[in-house]
Amino acid sequence: MSKKDETRGKKLQSVFSISHDKDVDGLCAAAIVARYAKQKNLDFDVLLTDYGSFDYAFSKVTGLRDTLIVVTDLGLDANYLEAVQNALSKAVSQNCRVVWLDHHQWSKEAIKAILQLDRKPVVKINHDFCAAEIAYKVLMPRDIISGELAAIAHDTDFNERAIPAANALTDAVSVIRFGAIDRRHDITDALKPLLMSLSENGIAGVWDSKRNQLRDNLLAKQVHHYRKDKAKKMRKAFAGHCDQEINDVLVRIVEIPTGVTTTDLGTYLADSENLELEGKKYPLADLLITLSQGGMLGFRRGSEKVLCNEAAKIFKGGGHPYAAGGEYGLYDDFEAVCADIYNILSKDQSWIAEKQSQD
Ligand SMILES: [Mn+2]
User: Fold this and answer.
1) What is the CA radius of gyration of the chain?
2) Which among 133, 146, 20, 143 is positioned nearest to 71, based on CA atoms?
3) Which tens digits make up the pLDDT trace of 190-239?
4) How many helices (DSSP H) and strands (DSSP E) are in the chain?
5) What is the dihedral of CA 325, 327, 328, 332, to 10 degrees?
6) pLDDT one-digit tens code per residue, 82-94
7) pLDDT at residue 3, as a whole number
8) What is the largest CA-CA distance in the chain?
9) Are 288 and 301 in contact (CB under 8 A)?
């Protein structure tokens, strides 16, 4: 038996999960991976990360041996392709295996880069589900708690907002993340207690359904305060909005305040109760565009007249018809940006659904 064959025959000892730190989907996907590790009697470790930190996250895998590396809720784009491929190749040469489960847009090259790895990598990308649902189906299809975690993630990722525990969890993740960033603490360390109790006991581990609040009283208080503060900021942001109709489609642009996510603002402005300012009622926008201080754009639709992914494409981005992201670039004059965006969207109307079907 050659040395190579010996390595190949060796059994996997542990699972290393790399997942998205930003939302409930990434967290639930990692919790399902942790349940899988436990079921298989393998050690478990996790790294939660975000776009922009892939170099650091994947540098961690080069030290792994005999490990199943499961990446969830993270898309691989051209900027990181080479670094990620090199790091994973190194790990695979040390008897690791790679499973990548995601629901974002991938290029053919990126899929090929992962499939080219040795030791039969698994790549499952499906846009119809959230990442936790894919992890549930692929890794733990008969596990009730994993199914429950997948349902919670779906509720937040598809913006259904029908499960109160899922809403609270979304805010808890934001509170913990922003807190860790402020104190320069490690985000994975900060989120790990929440992640592990989700993994061990499902949503019942963190949510008290009798009292209708998070079990951790301090966290519940922080979430309550965070929501109040957020609502105040969002009301103020809405007061400064711009509205314009393009071809009978109402496009609304709002600047995102710090500490508020696109999803927060999208949910807030989808509720007609919040669309009242000084006695004046505003209609729901067909397309809501959020602009962050860093010049990033978020797209959320209020009606099926609009294709967010097509609008995002015009601004170097992409996503789904109901939610997408793009980039405007740094700016200092919000009104001027609005005029510019309206101008761009008037010239190229491919984002209006009925224009699409006419082509
Ligand atoms: Mn997701």
Assistant:
1) 22
2) 20
3) 999 999 999 999 999 999 999 999 999 999 999 999 999 999 999 999 99
4) 14, 15
5) 100
6) 999 999 999 999 9
7) 47
8) 81
9) yes
Partner residues linked to 276 by β-bridges: 281
Sketch out the chain's domains with CATH numbers: 10-159 (3.90.1640.30), 236-358 (3.10.310.30)
Contact yes or no for 270/300 (Cβ under 8 A): yes
Whole-number Å distance, alpha carbon 130 to ligand 1 midpoint, is 5
Distance (Å) from CA 258 to ligand 1 centroid: 22
Q: Can you read off the two tokens belonging to residue 302? A: 């209020």
The amino acid at 207: W
Half-sphere exposure of residue 19, counting CA atoms within 13 Å on the CB side?
30
* pTM confidence score: 0.79
- CA distance to 112, 343, 347, 356, per residue, from 359 (Å): 32, 22, 16, 6
* Distance from residue 268's CA to the centre of ligand 1 (Å): 20
Residue count of the chain: 359
The alpha carbon of 27 and the centre of ligand 1 are apart by a number of angstroms equal to: 9
Q: If you search the block for the tokens 């298989």, which residue do you land on?
A: 40
Ligand 1 centroid, distance to 127 Cα (angstroms): 10
Distance from Cα 282 to the centre of ligand 1, integer Å: 31
List all residues 6 or more positions away from 271 whose beta carbon is below 8 Å from its beta carbon.
Answer: none
Task: Using the Cα atoms of residue 28, residue 32, residue 37 and residue 41 in order, give the sign of their dihedral.
Answer: positive
The confidence score (pLDDT) of residue 9 equals 58
Q: 2 falls in which pLDDT band (50, 70, 90)?
A: very low
Beta-carbon neighbours within 5 Å of ion ligand 1? 25, 73, 130-131, 157
Query: pLDDT tens digit string along 163-179?
Result: 999 989 999 999 999 89
How far apart, in Å, do the first and last CA atoms of the chain sit? 62
